[in-house]
Amino acid sequence: MRRQEVIWDLCQSEDEFVQSLQVVLRLFVQPLRSENGTQWIPGLEPDVAKLFDWLDDIAQLHAQLLATMRGCRTNQLPIVTQIAESLRPFVSKLEIHQPYLVRVDDVTQLIKQMIEDPSSDFGEFVRIQSSASDCSGPLPTLLQKPVERLFKYPDYFKVLLSP
Question: What pTM, to 2 d.p., does this model score?
C-alpha cells in the first residue's frame, strides 16, 4: 500500500511540476521569442536567454517523464507494480539540468535586480507577467522549481526500488 501511495504521489507531483513549468514558459519565455520561436527578441540579457533555453529543455524532458508515468499507471490499473524500470532510462537524462543548476542562482540574482530597476524593460515585463492570474509566484522563485524537484527524486526512487 505504501508503494502505491509513493507511486501516486510521484505521478501527481510530476504532473504539478510539469504544469508549473508550462505556465512559466507560456508567461515568461514564449513572449520573448521571435515569431518562429527559435531566436530571442533583441535586447534580452544573454544569460537570461540561456537559462530560459535550459528551462525549456528541462520542461520537455519532464513532460516525457510524465507521459511514461501515465503510461505505466494506465497499463497496470488498478495496481501499479512496476514503475522503476520504466523510469530508469530517464535517470541519465536528468543531467540536462546540469548547466541550469550551475547558473540558476546567478541569473536569478540578475533577474531580481532587473525587477527592482524601474528603468529595466525586462523588469517591467516580468512585473506585468507576474500579475497574471495563473502565475503562482515571483519569477525568481519559480526558476528554483527544477532544483527543488531534483532533490525529491532520490527519496521516491529509494522507496520504489526497495523490494
Answer: 0.89
C-alpha cell at 29: 519565455
Q: Per-residue pLDDT tens for 41-82?
A: 989 999 999 999 999 999 999 999 999 988 877 666 666 666
User: Which CA distances in Å does 42 have to 33, 97, 100, 157?
Assistant: 9, 26, 22, 43
Q: Which residue has the cell 503510461?
A: 71
Q: How far is CA 67 from the centre of its chain?
A: 15
CA distances from 159 to 2, 103, 130, 154 (A): 9, 31, 37, 9
CATH number, domain containing residue 43: 1.20.900.10
Contact 159, 3 (CB under 8 A): yes
Under DSSP, the state recorded for 74 is H
129: cell is: 507577467
Which of these, 12, 15, 108, 91, lies nearest to 55 by C-alpha position?
108
Q: 50: which 3 cell numbers? A: 540561456
Range of the domain at 40: 2-161
CA 31 to chain centre: 18
